[in-house]
Structure formats: structure tokens, C-alpha cells
Give the backbone structure.
Amino acid sequence: MSAALRAPDLHPVDLNSAAAAAAALRTFWRLAEAWKLSVAEQTTLLGVGRTTLYQWKQGKPGPLDRHVLERLSYLFGIYAALQILLPVPERADEWIRKPNAAPLFAGRSALERMMGGQVADLFVVRQYLDAQRGGKA
């Protein structure tokens, strides 16, 4: 096979590296800014304490454990789904704070549901949005 037809050598990303943690957290800080998340909301959504959050904000993330990575994955998926469903960025960002009549939310906002503090709270919001998009994650 000619070199032009061969797939490039791809190296797997080490999710346990400090570089991967820093990249994931940079993305989360942008999401937190777009959603206007308070420090308390950020700690609850990430499942970490204030001290850890402040260390991360100072650029000292270290490797992220699998629970934080799972939470980030759901949050990034929620953000992406909203960008698809509501292509006006301001509307997409405001949606998480607006009351929602869907049975899952019972008149509360998606953020209120996600603030339950459990990974499952993030999962159900992500699942709901994926269903609204008519597809899977």
C-alpha cells in the first residue's frame, strides 16, 4: 500500500494526563461562563469541593478521576445538543435556567435537575436532549 493511502499513525489520548485535564477544564470554564454558573453550581456539577475547583482554576488540575471525566462528558454533550437544538447561542445558553414543562423537569429548569448532584441527574438531562434531537449520543 502506498504511503499516501495509509492512515496516519494515531496515538491514543491519555485522559489521565495533566494536558488532557487542562484541556477539558478549559472547555468547562467556557461552558460555565456561557451558562453563567456560580461557584456552587460548578462544584456540584463537577462533583468536587471548592478547594479542588480553585486549584484547577489556578492551573493545577493534575489528572482527573473517572467520575469527573464522566460528568464532563455529560455536560459537554448537553452543551452540544443545545447548540444543535437551539442554534442561536444565547437561547441555547439560557435554556438550562428556564422552567421546563416536560415531565422530567416538572416545571423546574434543567439546571435545577442537574443540581441534584448525582451523575444520573446529568445523564437524564443529556438523554432528554438526545431524544429531542431524535438521536443518540
The chain has one domain: 18-133. Residues 18-133 form one domain. The two ends are 35 Å apart (CA to CA).
